[in-house]
Amino acid sequence: MYLLSMWGFNLSLAQVPVGIAYAVWSALGTTLVSTIGILHFDETMNWKKAVCLLLIVAGVVGLNVG
Q: What sections of the protein cross the membrane (predicted)?
């Protein structure tokens, strides 16, 4: 899966600036890994984790809009 992810990231660089592509790639990775941990490995979810994940997503959206 990691190689597939890197391949997709490489393809996106042909269309998107590196800073934006890396921000989106890392934010999606962080969000997906956190979600998998919560759903499949019984990690706890509290309001602090939820706020932090939302801030990561909001930061990436802000980079794309700005």
A: 20-39
Instruction: Count structural domains, the chain.
Output: 1
pTM for the full predicted model:
0.75
Q: Which two tokens stand for residue 41?
A: 């490995």
C-beta of residue 55 within 8 angstroms of C-beta of residue 22: no
CB 16 within 8 A of CB 63: no
Q: Is residue 49 within 8 Å of 31, Cβ to Cβ? A: no
pLDDT tens figures, 1-59: 889 988 989 999 999 999 888 888 889 889 999 999 999 999 999 999 999 999 999 99
Structural domain boundaries enclosing 21? 17-65
